[in-house]
Amino acid sequence: MIKCSHNVIKLAKINTPENCVFCQNCGIILFPSKNDKYSSTIKPIENESKTETDPIDIFLNSYKSTPFIPIQKDCIYAEKRPRAIKIINKLNKLYNYKEEIFFLALTYMDYIFKSIYSSKDSNLTNKQEELYIINCLYLAEKFYDTDITTPPDFNLYLKNSIYSVEILDIKEYEVSSLKILKYKLDQHSIYDILSGYMYNGFIFEKEIDINSIYQLKFAYNYADKIFRDIIVSNIAIFYPPYLVAFVIIQLTRKKFFDNKYMKKIKKFYGIKNEDYKECYEEVKTLLSKTKI
Description:
The chain is mainly alpha-helical. It has two domains: 8-64 and 188-290, no CATH class; 92-180, Cyclin A, domain 1. The chain is 55% helix and 6% strand. The chain is built from twelve helices and five strands. Strands 1-2-3-4-5 form a five-stranded antiparallel beta sheet, with no helix packed on it. The longest helix is centred in the N-terminal third of the chain and has 20 residues, at 76-95.
């Protein structure tokens, strides 16, 4: 667990309704409490994130700027997404992408297909769908690694298909993908935003046995398991990423702790009950089926 003396010189104010501060030494968020004291959050050592700049200002601005396309529950993409998930998972296993690349690609994929299938008259062939998915991974990899100049040989994946693709095919759909994304590649997936909540800390030091690192890790692992069930479900396309990530945090706290600090946390991130209530109920239903 993060242990820090929180030197006063290293405490910096955060511009939020809760008037919190963060420690520039260990990255811990401290919430104001009675008698001008602070309630300190706590997190596993692997979630340490030292920073000299206001982490919340950067975090809030980044997730709020991520574009989101609302769709109806009966949208054709809701029917097609399970197949798209299988394809992107196969590609991921074959080419072994880093998690941040894979989840960013998944975010691109959902945005592109929601854009295309927002019209009931829209339809794509299997080859067209796969070319878009291939390019989502290619663009995500480019976003994280500027040294990439040539696409991987995706025919390794397509060797059992009835068609193959050429470099020109990939380039054509790369341009199309960029146009649909409006050239905005700095999007934030549920994975990114959940990581942000977890790095900021959502459990308070006084809530756990200070000698029990396992209690803290169990909570963080539980949040990760919920996320991995949600990301392959259609819940991920019906609600903005920051709300889905917040619901994961709330359900994790409910299982391991209580709702004592949720009011503070909601106010801290500027999240209103009415914004996430429906999402919260859908995730609860999903969890009841998966028995996490």
